[in-house]
Amino acid sequence: MKIQYLGHSCFKLTESTGTTVITDPYKKEIGIELPEGLTADAVTISHSHYDHDNPSAIGGNPQVIRKEGFYELPGVEITGIKSYHDTAEGKLRGENVIYKFRMDGMEICHLGDLGEECSSELIEMLLPVNILLIPVGGTYTIDAEQAKEYVDRIMPDIVIPMHYRSKRLTIDLDRAQGFLDEFDDEDVDVCRKDVLEFSRDDLTEEKTKIILMERTKIK
Fold first, then answer.
1. Of 115, 2, 7, whose CA–CA distance to 52 is shortest?
2. pLDDT band at 183 (very low <50, low <70, confident <90, very high)
3. Which of 60, 111, 149, 181 is buried most deeply by CB count within 10 Å?
4. More confident: 218 or 199
């Protein structure tokens, strides 16, 4: 399967037979714009804030998924899991939907704007996870230290940070470096790529690998 980083918390996930899902497409008010001509079979929305909720920008008449539950596409299973955008059970920023995607025999988890403290109950609902897409920029979500706790508890093979301060982004977030500093240098790959491909054969690491992707063309 292929993962394309489109900036902020937006990824395009492509299963080997061609089924595609885009996560949390954003509006240009965040300081960057989505690439033109994006299409997908489904779009997942973790919550209704403008930096995560712009499905009209995606072509192909995709199925728009906004709620917890189980969804099926050709070759892809999607599970939405209720969580919170804050530490007060949603009283501050509302609810957040975590999405798990089963593609090509792998479990990919997109945590959306997760803000709640790490709990055994939530971890049990998320496991197992091979590839974890996790917010690390703090302010509105978990911060670097809290994200490290989630990684330690979930123990995925691959971790891809998202929702951090990047070039031209106007949202007040911390940079990804604080999260990267929580790990040993040999476990971190700053790849400077916006597209990566994974298969079950890649998931043989004894330790979790952190991969910082970068959107290479920003408008």
1. 7
2. very high
3. 111
4. 199
- For residue 58, count other CB atoms closer than 10 A to its CB: 22
C-alpha closest to that of 137 among 9, 10, 25? 9
CA distance 46 to 59: 19
- Dump the DSSP string for 20-62: EEEE----GGGS--PPTT-B-SEEE-SSSSTTT--GGG-BS-P
Q: What are phi and psi of 134, to 5 degrees?
A: -130, 135
Separation of alpha carbons 137 and 87, rounded Å: 16
Handedness of CA 15, 163, 141, 146 (dihedral sign): positive
Give the pLDDT confidence of 43-88 residue by residue, as tens digits. 999 998 888 899 999 999 999 999 999 999 999 999 999 998 777 6
For the segment(s) 2-212, the CATH number from 2.40.10.10, 3.10.290.10, 2.30.30.30, 3.60.15.10 is 3.60.15.10
pTM over 0.90: yes
**DSSP state, residue 182:** T
- Name 98's bridge partners: 81
Q: How far apart are CA 107 and CA 79, in angstroms?
A: 11
Instruction: Identify whether the C-beta of residue 86 lies closer than 8 Å to the C-beta of residue 93.
Output: yes
- Per domain, the residue ranges of the chain are 2-212
